[in-house]
Amino acid sequence: MKNQQHAFDVIVIGAGPSGAVVSSILNQQGLSVLVLEKAHFPRFSIGESLLPQAMTYLEAANLLQPVVEAGFQYKNGAVFRRASRCTQFDFREKFSSGWGTTYQVKRAAFDKVLADAAEQQGVQIKYGYTVTAVNFLAEAVEVCCVDEQGNAYRFYSQFLADASGFGRVLPRLLDLETPSCFPVRQSLFTHIKDNIVDENFDRNKILITIHPKYQDVWYWLIPFSDGTSSIGVVVPPALMDEDEDNTHQLQQFISEATELAELTANAEFINPAQKIVGYSANVSKLWGDRFVLLGNAAEFLDPVFSSGVTIALKSAHLAAGLIAKQVAGETVDWQTRYHQPLMKGIDTFRCFVESWYDGSLQNILFFRQKEQGVERMICSILAGYAWDEANPYVADCSRRLNVLKELCS
Ligand SMILES: Cc1cc2nc3c(=O)[nH]c(=O)nc-3n(C[C@H](O)[C@H](O)[C@H](O)COP(=O)(O)OP(=O)(O)OC[C@H]3O[C@@H](n4cnc5c(N)ncnc54)[C@H](O)[C@@H]3O)c2cc1C
């Protein structure tokens, strides 16, 4: 065991979006931060369609400029398609104030841009270090990890932020995992050279297509700036053939959605399709004595509204200010200042996700006689402004959606 006695103010597990944002903000506040990341960047990650609300947190972390300069695909909205009908949202017409545009990003590149910028600002990142255990000692938090040669290390800090995403390091080590409120779903996805020739296709928007027969099966098409796209389908396990090859199965599902199949008729698969199963996750608590869970390490709902990275960045931004206070010796009420405000937006998205899968939100989105004020409020949430309580669909989401459901049914 190589004993590293040097102690940091804060150790962060994972250098994904939430790890980069929390460590940058803490570093700017003068704290010493060590990020332990098991992979080497660039590395593939899923979650490629950002929401405009995320830009606020990148800006707060001084990470916006490198993202803007990286040449990612501009994004200003979302198109939903059900059979031959389309409905679209332009995020610039949203109810809430703030950013109305963002990007569609290959996460390998995006995550590297963020992590490199954080490093240039002074954050120390150790790549190839996998966190294996943590001990909350009287004087410090001890973080144990191994490098790729199998060497073991211990690092010490006053505070630990878990930004390990689907790695869910602290939820597993501290037995915090609880079942998700959503049923298990699976997703098949890949990158394609899309070769889309349809002039009406808007590369500035994510395209969400609903399966012609099953309302809980839907596809994403996320165009990138280099002529490629991310394409994927979300499917309940009952409709998946476990013995079938992933690529063939994805192609089969695409062929069942006629308009999507026509749009991508000339596409070439760049990689074999990958599958993720049962990604929705929950925890019994988001914080504890000298630790906090960020992003996917805390809770993951569902991919349908592209909320994952935005929630991850929101959690990182919210937690950073509180970690700085705690390290400075202040008492922090994490329940009222972290858990409750973060859950407000997560619960808004949860409400939207539930009503997407029961079909009622799909009916609302495709309802023909749209009321502009309401449309702008819904648009706000689709743009990620799920914490803006001035929006009635945030303040009282469930009741408002139920009323709308009746009106649109
Ligand atoms: C099918 C699907 C589609 C999605 N689509 C979207 C989308 O379009 N838009 C969107 O915003 N979100 C989407 N998401 C969600 C998105 O992937 C996540 O919400 C987002 O990546 C979370 O960021 P994070 O910083 O919390 O974690 P991550 O991005 O997962 O980063 C965690 C990092 O921690 C590292 N790590 C893990 N374990 C350890 C360990 N033991 N020691 C050290 N390091 C470790 C990992 O290597 C990784 O680099 C999707 C999710 C799924 C499943």
From TrEMBL:
Pfam families of this UniProt entry? FAD_binding_3 (PF01494)
List the Gene3D superfamilies hit by this protein, alphabetically: FAD/NAD(P)-binding domain
Q: Where does the FAD-binding domain lie?
A: 9-333
InterPro entries linked to this entry: FAD-bd, FAD/NAD-bd_sf, Flavin-dep_Halogenase_NPB
**One GO MF term:** FAD binding
Q: Which PANTHER family match?
A: FAD-BINDING PROTEIN, SLR1998 PROTEIN
Q: What is this protein called?
A: NAD(P)/FAD-dependent oxidoreductase
